[in-house]
Amino acid sequence: MISQEKNSGNAASPIVHAKADRANPVTLREVAELAGVSTATVSLVINKKKNARIADETRQRVTEAIAQLGYRPNAMAKTLVSGTSKFIGLVADGVATTPFAGQIIHGAQDEAWKHGYALLIANTEGNQDLEKDAIAMMLEYKVRGILYSTWFHRPTDIPETLREADFVLVNCFSPEAGTARAVVPDEAQGGQSATEILLRGGHRRIAFINTTTPAPARDGRLQGYRNALEAAGIPFDADLVLEAYPDQEGGFGATDELLKRNVSAVYCYNDRMAMGLYDGLRENGLSIPDDIAVVGFDNQEVIAAHLRPPLSTVSLPHYELGAAGVRMLLGLDAAPLESAVKIACPAVERASVAVHTAA
Amino acid sequence: MISQEKNSGNAASPIVHAKADRANPVTLREVAELAGVSTATVSLVINKKKNARIADETRQRVTEAIAQLGYRPNAMAKTLVSGTSKFIGLVADGVATTPFAGQIIHGAQDEAWKHGYALLIANTEGNQDLEKDAIAMMLEYKVRGILYSTWFHRPTDIPETLREADFVLVNCFSPEAGTARAVVPDEAQGGQSATEILLRGGHRRIAFINTTTPAPARDGRLQGYRNALEAAGIPFDADLVLEAYPDQEGGFGATDELLKRNVSAVYCYNDRMAMGLYDGLRENGLSIPDDIAVVGFDNQEVIAAHLRPPLSTVSLPHYELGAAGVRMLLGLDAAPLESAVKIACPAVERASVAVHTAA
DNA sequence: GAAATTTGCTAAAACGCTTGAACAGCATGG
DNA sequence: CCATGCTGTTCAAGCGTTTTAGCAAATTTC
User: Fold this and answer.
1) How many CB atoms lie within 10 A of CB B48?
2) Which of residues 264-303 of B touch A (CB under 8 A)?
């Protein structure tokens, strides 16, 4: 009476059951009809429900029908019922402004996938309106949660709407502690590791060319340098800390000042400065690592691995940040509200620091 | 009788109407109740239906109710009804293997967003199974279509399942012509532009250091070189075409051979080779651009813009590829099946080629 | 061999929304 | 004043799933 769909038996339909048409996808109902069971049964079979009692023979028939029709579940319908999707949103303020950001996406995507989630990304280029829209979109699509990431490590304000979702800050943190979960690189440990590469190379007079731009990295990387020296019993000499704009030109330009310091090794705030410094040292007829050893920070592959000589440096763990963000979001990793979780920056040793032989 | 939900008037519910609880989102129905209308009306107001006749006063009340409750439509429910989502899938074989890929994502994301679509990305790292799963997932989420992209320009096989969706190949193409829409960089034009930079610089004897690795780029960039020479009336000299592995070491290693050719300018297959060549030329005491002018290809920012001197090169239009892919998918741009659409590689002139004064 | 239990399956409601048909009330035209 | 046409709104079906309660048949228990 109500539904005349079940043309069970009564001729007419020549069972053509063609494969999914792009516009008319195969539904559960059609599978059920072909298998001669109810949609409930098909659903139970598909989802391999533990305590569902289905005869092997039936299960078999359903499986065949599914294969025959090329059935694909409609995730939207599923989500409607369950209330939350298998999406994790990733809001980035610069997907590709830097080669780095890609790695955050990459890490997040891999980890999300591992747990059955797909990544929904939005690039906002820092535009507040776009950001708001992006978050709204994600909320509408019932994402499981949102990763809010920045392309360089910095404090950030938390957009109002973000609080409507479950979220984790990635590569950034809230200035007001205790209000958001966050994961950031461990700059101090990184700075320490960088310095230690040089210490292991036998160097005692080590300069640090820091950036002029205020950032957590600036403070952290300096702190790491001091910690390393202290641990090695070398007094900190403020005169050995220079500052320059954090790019090639900055590194190049710092060469002269550096040479006045009479050091045997330099730790640069980042790889780009190191790249500039390479040019500067070369112009002064100095060779790396024999005359001066150099380490950078960031491990920007295209640069670091291919300079001549290849640059020893410290990796910014972007991939790991993305992955850790997802784990924290899903509650798989501890995610304290009080302070950001710090991810280690592993040292990457290459030829820009000579191996220390004997004492 | 059927529904006892409409507690219209009959006491009991103390109209607390709190704002959206994360677990219990506000629904259309609640908005309707608060505004004292039916859900149909609310829906009509929200979607600003053209031929819906709604009194201004009603419209007003609904709008207020929405604001008051902080209502957010459930996109999944919407999609269920309409049949297709506002998603565009992007399958990439290396999201961040290279800084490039990020730009494809970026371009696709911006363009998609512009048309009200969100990007669903999946990184497969070339893994076939992952790829299949990713495409399946996208199909289940009823994506409007899929962008299938590779991190370097190359022919590709089209996964079986991809054909179940509307799709466009980005930065790759099908070896069997006429079977898929595709968008790729115009390598030949790029090679020609690169060579022309040198020709404009007054150079006549121009070497080309090509890659040893077979790829459309290898053929296209060489063709462009030949086209440019021909247009300038310079006979092609096979002796001026060298080959090397396409990285810094390759460029560096090609220096000696190059110097035997007695040329005044070099066009390198890519920026990384140019970077290596810089080192090689420097070691030979040659200066760029005075002794030898250099152009690269790819415009890999971190390298090209910051070498000393900055490198003239040609951009791979990754951002545009992503954007064009989306437009083709949505039917906004022509998308012939017969052959891939080619996107121009614009020249980027920097200081590695001196300006030509006088003839 | 009746009662109790287990097995295999289905009916139907629910998820939140859209949309065409329908309807009441009112104004207009003849 | 009846037919007609608007206007503003609601009804109710439907989108493709999941899931709980329930039912008939088969099997076991005593």
Assistant:
1) 9
2) 272, 275-276, 279, 282, 300, 302-303
